From TrEMBL:
This is Transcriptional regulator TetR family. Residues 31-91 form the HTH tetR-type domain. InterPro entries: Homeodomain-like_sf (IPR009057), HTH-type_TetR-like_transc_reg (IPR050109), HTH_TetR (IPR001647). GO terms for molecular function: DNA-binding transcription factor activity; transcription cis-regulatory region binding. Residues 54-73 bind DNA.
Length: 210
């Protein structure tokens, strides 16, 4: 990772991807163009910060006309929401259907460690957008995406043989992956992301030690 400032639940179905299904009927060429625009937007956010990314800049970075960006996303808020969906879809697809250790088939503790590392990488790349999206705690905690993460983490804890109040343990674990907290640790306190990732690994091993 780059260094920069209760019974087991049933398997998660594909429809548990609350942010991933909106584009499922897109034509292949439209989906490719959409991903190209979102990849460009993601790069610009990482380079400039979310406040300094404009529709015009995204169009230039993707080498398309400005009208194409507006037709696709409507406005800047629509673009930012789509960027969050884009990055979240990749993460969810990886832990639901990808290869181990993040995806199914691996040891649950290793999967939990991998989930945290993947989330930290996502925050590292798209933390500005995620922080903006998570600025309202009430909406963040009620968002279906967090529900998918919570269901996944709780399922892995149970598969690892963890007893006790799994729901509270799940909430505590997810709190350490909060984008605003990770950004503060990294950019304000000066903790390298590798240190934060090592801390997650240590925390998971302590929680799952039966």
């Amino acid at each position: 990772m780059a260094s920069t400032p209760t019974a087991p639940l049933t398997p998660l179905p594909t429809l548990a991807l609350p942010m991933a299904g909106a584009q499922e009927h897109e034509r292949a060429d439209a989906a490719r163009n959409r991903r190209r625009l979102l990849d460009a937007a993601g790069r610009l956010v990482a380079e400039r910060g979310v406040a300094n990314v404009t529709m015009e800049a995204v169009a230039a970075a993707a080498e398309v006309g400005k009208g194409t960006v507006f037709r696709r996303f409507g406005d800047r808020a629509g673009l930012m929401n789509a960027l969050i969906n884009h990055t979240e879809t990749d993460l969810q697809e990886a832990f639901l259907h990808g290869p181990p250790p993040l995806g199914p088939g691996g040891d649950p503790v290793e999967r939990l460690v991998a989930f945290g590392h993947a989330r930290l990488e996502m925050v590292d790349l798209h933390g500005e957008v995620l922080r903006a999206a998570e600025s309202c705690a009430e909406k963040r905690l009620a968002h279906p995406t967090r529900g998918v993460h919570a269901t996944h983490v709780a399922s892995l804890l149970r598969d690892a043989g963890v007893s006790g109040d799994v729901q509270l343990l799940t909430d505590s674990l997810l709190a350490t992956l909060d984008a605003s907290l990770v950004w503060h640790q990294n950019h304000v306190l000066g903790m390298p992301l590798a240190r934060i990732a090592d801390g997650w690994t240590d925390l998971v091993h302590r929680v799952t030690r039966c």
